[in-house]
Amino acid sequence: MHHVNNSIERAENELAENEFARDVLAGLSADVKTLPSRWLYDERGSALFEEITKLEEYYLTRAETSILRDRQMDIADFVGSGATLVEYGAGAGVKTELVLAGLRDPRGYVPIDIADTFLAETSKRIASRFPSLCVRPIERNFLDVFEVPFDGSGAGRTGFFPGSTMGNLNTTEAQTLLTQMGRHLGDKGRAIIGVDLQKNVDKLLNAYDDSAGVTAAFNLNLFARINTELGGDFRLEQFKHVARWNETEKAVEMHLVSLCDQRVTLCEQTFHFRASETIHTESSRKYTVESFKRLVHAGGWRVAEAWQDGDALFGLFGLVR
Ligand code: AVJ
């Protein structure tokens, strides 16, 4: 039994590794080099992101958590009693506990995440803290197309998508996800989505280029990961982290800038980097209440509630169909 599990695990790892290799080779071969941001979150990347959430400059997590605390009753009223919470991209589950603790008679919790270690840990902890809750984790990339098997009636399903992760999706991806959430949660379904709001550009850029260099380490870790997992020979000291505001996209972008003319080899392919050439590694889109309303309309939803923290830094939206 044990060796069967191991070989399944190995096959899964190989599959994931191939997908990583495919994305990296394609991204570095393009005229404008880019790497998908979801590969930032290996074990070290996830630990570095946890550190980011505690930084003075990174206001997002604190602002969203304060809304979840201050509005716990309003959120419970919005969700209603006997609900099942479906979380898209469940991480450590800290915010989930805040929501669940306020709900009246919550029935179920369905966390969806590709990171199986996080998923198992979070599921176990939440199941033990909320003994009457039926916890059914789903190990998937929430951008894939899949079905959610629910028990009982379709009443009281609420999607939960906090953390401004929506901001990492482009318009097409965001609309595909919103449509999928509509299918999962049904006509009576509801959703609670947290997104970062547009504000002073310096404040935005500081959040993505902190003075302690944690975000720089988080970004550069992507090249370290390519070196270990794909046998690359990136010299990390020859690249620099930058955060940029893209006014057209209304997004903070993270890039890695090549500090000199250089070549890097991985998977038997060589890539050339000009001095000052950048590799785009992440976009974090920032919304206004109006631009977020337009986005969700296009995905088949309507904004029923718009909650903000006291400094209007972050938005938590209650959506209905
Ligand atoms: C977890 C994706 C929402 O975009 O703000 C933090 C990731 N990147 N610092 C964000 C991140 C750089 C974060 N998300």
Automatic annotation (TrEMBL):
Pfam families: Methyltransf_33 (PF10017). Keywords: Methyltransferase, Transferase. It is an enzyme of class 2 (transferase). InterPro entries: EgtD, EgtD_Methyltrsf_superfamily, MeTrfase_dom, MeTrfase_EgtD-like, SAM-dependent_MTases_sf. Signal peptide: none annotated. SUPFAM superfamilies: S-adenosyl-L-methionine-dependent methyltransferases. Residues 20-317 form the Histidine-specific methyltransferase SAM-dependent domain. One of its GO terms (molecular function) is L-histidine N(alpha)-methyltransferase activity. GO terms for biological process: methylation. Its EC number is 2.1.1.44. This is L-histidine N(Alpha)-methyltransferase. It comes from Rhizobium mayense.
